[in-house]
Fold each of these.
Amino acid sequence: MKEVIVISGKGGTGKTSITAAFASLAQNAVIADCDVDAADLHLILEPDITTENNFSGGKTAVINTDKCIGCGKCANLCRFDAIHLDAKATGGGKKFSIDPISCEGCKVCVEFCPVRAIDFKDALNGKWFISKTRFGPMVHAKLGIAEENSGKLVCLIRQKAKEIAKEQNKDLIIVDGSPGIGCPVIASITGADLVIVVTEPTLSGKHDLDRVVDLTSNFGIKTAVCINKADINPEITEQIVEQAGKRNVKVIGKIAYDESFTKAQILKAAITEYTGGFIAGEIKKIWQEIIYNLG
Ligand code: SF4
Ligand code: SF4
């Protein structure tokens, strides 16, 4: 079983549209959306959810107002300003409550409450799903608003995708990874067979590509580059090709700017479903390169 991860140094390079196109071209693949902080592959793939699960990435403190004596010690101790007097509390006396978005789960309040009135529970940080799509099974997630621990969720999604691939005898996993170089990206790429970096010919695209290649090199992961909208700035495209060459990273394709990408998105279609034209041909060639490089 092989795993190819599509990432980008920054958002907005067309990574997800290109991943959807790869999913449409793949045979016998499981699809995983690990861009959990801004998941949008589902907008094109329209998954039919078969299993829904809660995701807990940590713990959160909750005050039991029946036990709370209103001493305020927890509010004084909380370094994250998550505990305040609860104006809506009933039953008389000062009652405090914890804002779940601000709570960092440090457990200080739990330990120091004189009457043990604070519970420490699994936080509900989001949901993850197993779905059917027209291109094959898909594992994806929805992180709650202002929730963190997305690296842990990414690991979970990849693990479930591997289990499904094994169960259903699929020989390939295509992952839409997170942009940037932070924890979710590291969680997306570690142990992968091939990373495809989608970039664009802008100064920030060129700079961020360099940082991503630093990251993949550090983990010793085979990496290739795909330059999207390559014709909008041929000069920087050439600089990216040169920069990739110096770092022994193969440029497996250049895709010209094409409004068909937007039109396909509006119709919730992969570009390769929307058009059989030149652009679709270019992406098919890139996919063939990916299969070749996966070995
Ligand atoms: S420390 Fe305990 S008793 Fe005191 S306000 Fe906080 S929850 Fe209530
Ligand atoms: S667990 Fe830590 S962050 Fe959360 S409310 Fe208690 S003291 Fe504040």
Amino acid sequence: MPKITFIDVNGNSRECEVPSGISVMEGAIQNGIEGILAICGGSCACSTCHSYIDEAWMAVVGKPDEIEDSTLELALDRRPNSRLTCQIEVTDALDGLVVHVAQNDG
Ligand code: FES
């Protein structure tokens, strides 16, 4: 099962096993990662699953599509490596992924 490391806004780091086929956001929720609110439930409408993809993983994870890009405009402190984690599907290729949770509670 792919392992994903989540680093929250306080710098706490947790490595979690997340099954392939669900989203990175769902993996965070299942593991109780602080700061991933996911208010819209994963429909790319709220931006409260905003995170920064570790630079080393940007090429693998890829860029947001047009819809995600416009929802990301709602996020605080958007950066070049910003993604909405509900829009990233976990696959074996993401084993070892490092995700830095953004400030999502205002
Ligand atoms: S959970 Fe709302 S945009 Fe990702």
